[in-house]
Specification:
InterPro entries: SyrA
Mean pLDDT: 78
Keywords: Membrane, Transmembrane, Transmembrane helix
Pfam families: SyrA
Protein name: Exopolysaccharide production repressor protein
Number of domains: 1
Structural class: mainly alpha
Helix content: over 70%
Distance between the termini: 45 Å
Number of helices: 4
Length: 100
């Protein structure tokens, strides 16, 4: 899972996706000898990788939300720390403030 998260890092993806699309277009241009198939393949490659990145980020968000729900259910509470703060009480994981 850690390698997947490292692959999904935004700065690396902003370089990898256009570079891979450019190389795909370049290889297609040299093999086909025409710019139009090269543009089609490069554009298709770019769109497919962007979709993969989008769904990868959705998967990571879903995974984090599911882990948070499991953590809250193990503690016996169904509310989030923010909801506890709005209600004016301490969350079960945070120690109550001591008054001296």
């Amino acid at each position: 899972m850690k390698s997947f998260i490292q692959l999904m890092a935004a700065p690396a993806v902003f370089v990898q996706i256009p570079l891979t699309s450019f190389v795909t277009g370049l290889i297609t241009y040299f093999s086909e000898g025409s710019i139009w198939p090269a543009l089609k393949y490069a554009g298709g490659c770019f769109v497919l990788m962007q979709l993969g990145y989008f769904f990868g980020v959705l998967y990571l968000v879903y995974h984090e939300c599911r882990n948070g729900r499991e953590d809250r259910s193990a503690l016996g509470t169904s509310t989030t720390p923010i909801a506890h703060a709005r209600l004016g009480r301490a969350h079960p994981r945070t120690p109550a403030a001591r008054s001296f």
